[in-house]
């Protein structure tokens, strides 16, 4: 977000993040700029926000005692994850518009065997939460 957020906009986001982080099973959250996909805020376990490719690279770097390489790989993994989320939201929004031009996307939920990714699009940001998949 910019330096002069709308009144209570930043506080509202911080409040939502605080409430979400206290929920059981929440592993991490990431807030992206809606227009550019830039990372605005990250909280929780950063490893939950990495791609499998970056996780493998970080593991390999840690075995070779290359701490800077492992940190760089982790950072790149989070950036890759953010880019994938941003692309997923944009393609989903396009789908919604193609189906019904008067409709709008409110929530995206992607559930796997291991985790669930919930994305709440806003006009200024994308709030993404990664949490453990609850047992059935």
TrEMBL record:
> Taking every annotated instance into account, which residue ranges of this chain make up the domain Roadblock/LAMTOR2?
13-131
* Protein family according to the UniProt entry: Belongs to the GAMAD family.
> Species name for this entry?
Drechmeria coniospora
Instruction: State the Gene3D superfamilies in the record.
Output: Dynein light chain 2a, cytoplasmic
Q: Where is this region: Disordered?
A: 1-20
Q: Which InterPro entries match?
A: Roadblock/LAMTOR2_dom
Top-rank lineage group of the source organism: Eukaryota
User: What Pfam family does this protein match (any one)?
Assistant: Robl_LC7
Name of the featured protein: Dynein light chain-related protein
């Amino acid at each position: 977000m910019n330096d002069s957020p709308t009144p209570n906009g930043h506080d509202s986001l911080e409040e939502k993040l605080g409430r979400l982080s206290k929920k059981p099973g929440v592993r991490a959250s990431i807030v992206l700029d809606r227009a550019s996909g830039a990372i605005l805020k990250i909280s929780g376990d950063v490893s939950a926000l990495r791609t499998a490719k970056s996780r493998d690279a970080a593991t390999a770097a840690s075995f070779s005692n290359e701490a800077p390489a492992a940190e760089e790989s982790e950072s790149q993994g989070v950036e890759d994850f953010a880019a994938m989320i941003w692309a997923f939201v944009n393609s989903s929004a396009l789908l919604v518009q193609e189906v019904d031009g008067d409709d709008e996307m409110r929530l995206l939920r992607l559930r796997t065997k291991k985790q669930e990714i919930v994305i709440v699009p806003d006009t200024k940001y994308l709030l993404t939460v990664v949490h453990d998949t609850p047992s059935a």
